[in-house]
Design brief:
globular; 1 helix
């Protein structure tokens, strides 16, 4: 991964989720979610250039453990 030396990783509890933070400014550009460890959650505000279009998947984050299975299709490779 390019730029990895500028990142710090934070994990807690189970250690499955991995939150990456910039060592300089503290922003969290992305993380590996516990609910979908094969996926990556990206902070699109960190992308340059900004994507012209994006597809959003609605998800109940307040009750993520109950609904995590609804994201499984996003990790499947064709």
């Amino acid at each position: 991964m390019r730029g990895e030396e500028g990142l710090s990783t934070y994990t807690f509890n189970s250690g499955v989720a991995q939150h990456y933070f910039c060592k300089v400014c503290g922003i969290k550009p992305f993380y590996i979610p516990r609910s979908n460890p094969d996926g990556v959650d990206v902070n699109v505000r960190c992308l340059s250039p900004k994507p012209a279009s994006m597809r959003f998947e609605p998800f109940d984050g307040a009750n993520w453990e109950r609904h995590a299975h609804e994201l499984a299709h996003l990790s499947k490779q064709d």
